[in-house]
Write a structure and sequence with these properties.
Helix content of chain B: 25-40%
Number of strands of chain B: 8
Number of domains of chain A: 1
Number of strands of chain A: 9
Number of helices of chain B: 8
Number of domains of chain B: 1
CATH superfamily of chain A: Fe-S hydro-lyase, tartrate dehydratase beta-type, catalytic domain
Order of helices and strands of chain B: HHHEHEEHEHEHHEEE
Strand content of chain A: 25-35%
Strand content of chain B: 15-25%
Oligomer: heterodimer
Largest sheet of chain A: 5 strands, mixed, barrel
Structural class of chain B: alpha/beta
Strand order of the largest sheet of chain B: 2-1-3-8
Distance between the termini of chain A: 36 Å
CATH topology of chain A: fumarase
């Protein structure tokens, strides 16, 4: 049976290091969304030493472009599952290297560059892709909205979540990636399959 | 008689339905996979998917935040007389659906990335028209998310490569890995033209996903031996169905399109008139 863990933001490095690949995790506290454009703009800000609207240190980035609706001047989350994290393979490491500890939630996994960047300071959690209605249920409040000009899906939304999950630790802070492990098995299986096709 | 309002409101209704509930065949395929899986992580992923489908239906909200691009199939009965702007009715329906369902404003200009905010623009919604027997109008909507669409493949094969098709389908799924939100549905278009094979691959995804022929099953079994599993986290279920459609092609060519669809194979139909 998998270990079940609960974590809270802001993250502490000790807690981050305790998580291991395959653990089941539920997240509480504040998390914020960021995908392609927010990653690129954050990198521009870091390069130009401009002040970021959010603090990446100890935070959890959620790879998500939510479906939101404004009701009586208040933003509500309608559906907010994870987006494909691999699109951020090239941009995430430069953000990660500037923090003491960090967490990422997404889907589909990330590459070796990210595994290396997360070593000693961060983890990657897989949340079930497409589970937007269920994810929205775990989001209790919209706490902030930054870079709205990027559009609904690309802006940074700050969500307060309660027991957001179940998430699976796909990449831990010790360099272990469930995705790399599965990829190796898939290559082995593929060689067996094509000889028969 | 079918009029402008009938079509416009049917489009709104169909998007609401497609976004919030899946067809019985799709749910059956996911449930069967859940029963078959013995890998704990894989089983949990499928459980979350089933819980999510349940929540979306109960709360009447889109099951996935990527509400897709609006793709519409229209079948016009040969004996039906239409005296209004059918395209405008569909376009206006999509605008209203974007507000009411709601749909995420996904459609952007390909180069400037400018977003009109209503899922309407050049060639969008994508409307496919076919003429059939009878005097009815059948509308089918198929919201298509980008995560799976991005993993799709089109190849212009040589006629001598016909035996390579199953391997090329397996290759496409292997390269997509966990990115398209497996377990996936694989629509395959063989033959026709460059553009025609892509259309066949997409149309294949409209079929009952629980009915497959021997050729399709053989490819499905090969895919499921890869071990990618639900969400790429390992397991027996990488694909739920392989659906092949064929069309006559030029004697010198063999077009092949592989359209990947996530577990949320969303579609809804209505017959008017």
């Amino acid at each position: 049976m998998a270990r079940i863990r609960e974590i809270k933001t802001p993250l502490e490095r000790d807690e981050v290091l305790k998580l291991e690949a395959r653990d089941v995790v539920y997240v509480s506290g504040e998390i914020f969304t960021a995908r392609d454009k927010a990653h690129m703009r954050a990198l521009d800000y870091i390069r130009q030493r401009k002040e970021l609207p959010i603090n990446f240190n100890g935070c959890i980035i959620y790879h998500c472009g939510p479906l939101m609706r404004k009701i009586n001047e208040e933003w509500r989350v309608i559906s907010a599952g994870p987006t494909t994290s691999a699109r951020m393979n090239k941009t995430l490491p430069s953000i990660v290297k500037n923090v003491e500890c960090i967490g990422v939630i997404g889907k589909g996994g990330m590459d070796e560059g990210v595994v290396g960047a997360l070593k000693g300071r961060g983890f990657y959690l897989a949340y079930t892709g497409g589970a937007g209605a269920l994810a929205a249920n775990a989001i209790k409040k919209v706490r902030g909205l930054y870079w709205e000009d990027l559009g609904m899906a690309e802006a940074i939304w700050v969500f307060e979540v309660e027991k957001f999950g179940p998430c699976i630790v796909g990449i831990d802070a010790h360099g272990k990636s469930l995705y790399a492990e599965i990829q190796r098995k898939v290559e082995e299986n593929y060689r067996k399959i094509i000889s028969k096709l | 008689m079918v009029d402008y309002d009938d079509v416009k409101f049917a489009i709104v209704e169909l998007f609401k339905k497609a976004e919030t509930e899946l067809g019985e065949d799709v749910i059956k395929a996911i449930k069967n996979a859940y029963e078959r899986e013995d890998n704990e992580i894989a089983k949990n992923q499928l459980k979350t998917i089933l819980d999510n489908i349940d929540a979306a239906g109960r709360l009447k909200v889109p099951m996935c935040q990527d509400t897709g691009l609006p793709i519409v199939f229209v079948e016009i009965g040969k004996e039906l007389c239409l005296n209004f702007d059918l395209k405008k009715a569909i376009v206006d329906g999509v605008k209203i659906a974007t507000e009411e369902v709601p749909l995420r404003p996904n459609a952007v200009h390909p180069l400037t990335r400018e977003n009109p905010g209503n899922n309407v623009g050049l060639y969008m919604p994508q409307i496919n028209i076919d003429f059939v027997e009878g005097d009815k109008l059948k509308l089918t909507v198929m919201p298509k998310g980008a995560g799976s669409e991005n993993m799709s493949v089109l190849k212009m094969l040589l006629p001598s490569q016909v035996d390579e098709i199953p391997r090329l389908v397996v290759d496409a799924v292997k390269n997509a890995s966990g990115k398209p939100c497996p377990p996936i549905f694989v629509g395959v278009g063989i033959g026709s033209t460059f553009d025609g094979c892509a259309k066949l691959a997409k149309k294949a995804l409209l079929r009952d996903v629980t009915v497959m022929n021997e050729y399709e099953r053989e490819i499905l079994n090969a895919i499921n031996m890869l071990g990618i599993g639900p969400m790429g986290l390992g397991g027996k279920t990488t694909a739920l169905a392989v659906l092949v459609e064929t069309g006559y092609c030029h004697t010198a060519s063999l077009p092949l399109a592989i359209n990947i669809q996530c577990w949320a194979n969303r579609r809804a139909s209505k017959v008017l008139g």
